[in-house]
């Protein structure tokens, strides 16, 4: 690859790649499709956090979550699927990956398409639950919001250059801060690494007619994470997501663009920790350590806090 982004040359990314191996796991009977994962944290944890990328992303786009949360004892798995061309293939493949890794249940942090697939997986496995909770980032509940909905069946015919140009329209670096610009450069670099079948299959899943039935997930702990600045999704799509899950907690970031897990990783990691705290001390804990901060000695000690908006309980502040 001729171009290298600043993030891919950063000490954090180089440390991530040198310390955590990329694993390729074949779970399909024909042996031709391999999930690519980075698995960090204690393997004794049977209910880890799995991160699922957007259309243009690879597993390593979550390197800041893998490194940051692992330091808190959280087992984090960043997973990238092989080319799956329909919903059933993807669901079956992800189910076999969970079985292969001998996981009981999983918490899923899904970005864009990753968030949509996470919802669909939770919906279709509800009778034999495999998902403990969801954190949804810049995602949607209905694929009809995308302009290529009518032509999705033809993506497999298009060359990779055309498919990449379809996605590049969302990657504008105008009037953004340095960290957001760096996140866009990194994602462009990841996009360039994808081959035709990987891109075409993801776009097919992203744009084929499909929708979530959110009432089937009403009992599941859900956090919706999104940004208040410009992103690829319209405000109407975000409002539809809020209405679909009135019981969900909303974790807002003032800015971050389309890829806040790269551009605002500290805030994203903090919101993920707060979401996972509710499972402390249970069989669904994602960490071998307690995620609840212990009070410091002394009367003048100050603890960091983060604000949430809970749609039922109004404004909630969690320290």
Automatic annotation (TrEMBL):
Keyword hit for Ubl conjugation: no
Originating organism: Papilio machaon
Keywords assigned: Cytoplasm
One Gene Ontology CC term in the entry: cytoplasm
Main location (coarse class): cytoplasm
Highest rank taxon of the organism: Eukaryota
Keyword Iron-sulfur recorded: no
Range of residues in the leader sequence: none
Annotated family: Belongs to the AB hydrolase superfamily.
Protein name: Maspardin
Subcellular location: Cytoplasm
């Amino acid at each position: 690859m001729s171009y290298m982004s600043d993030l891919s040359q950063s000490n954090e990314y180089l440390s991530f790649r040198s310390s955590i191996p990329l694993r390729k796991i074949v779970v399909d009977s024909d042996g031709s499709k391999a999930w690519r994962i980075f698995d960090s944290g204690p393997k004794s944890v049977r209910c880890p956090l799995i991160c699922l990328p957007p259309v243009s992303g690879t597993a390593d786009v979550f390197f800041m979550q893998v490194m940051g949360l692992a330091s808190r004892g959280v087992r984090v798995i960043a997973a990238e699927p092989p080319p799956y061309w329909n919903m059933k293939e993807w669901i079956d493949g992800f189910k076999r990956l969970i079985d292969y890794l001998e996981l009981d249940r999983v918490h899923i942090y899904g970005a864009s398409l990753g968030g949509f697939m996470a919802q669909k997986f939770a919906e279709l496995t509800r009778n034999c639950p495999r998902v403990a909770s969801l954190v949804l980032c810049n995602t949607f509940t209905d694929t009809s919001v995308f302009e290529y909905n009518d032509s999705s069946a033809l993506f497999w015919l298009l060359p990779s250059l055309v498919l990449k140009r379809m996605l590049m329209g969302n990657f504008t670096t105008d009037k953004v801060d340095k960290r957001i610009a760096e996140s866009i450069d990194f994602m462009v670099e990841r996009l360039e690494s994808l081959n035709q079948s990987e891109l075409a299959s993801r776009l097919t899943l992203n744009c084929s007619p499909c929708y979530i039935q959110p009432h089937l997930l009403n009992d599941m702990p859900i956090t919706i994470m999104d940004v208040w600045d410009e992103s690829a999704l319209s405000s109407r799509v975000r409002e539809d997501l809020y209405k679909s899950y009135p019981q969900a907690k909303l974790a807002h970031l003032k800015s971050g663009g389309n890829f806040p897990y790269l551009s605002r990783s500290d805030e994203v990691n903090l919101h993920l920790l707060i979401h996972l705290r509710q499972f402390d001390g249970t069989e669904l804990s994602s960490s071998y350590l307690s995620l609840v901060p212990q009070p410091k000695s002394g009367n003048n000690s100050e603890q960091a806090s983060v604000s949430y908006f809970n749609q039922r309980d109004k404004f909630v502040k969690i320290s």
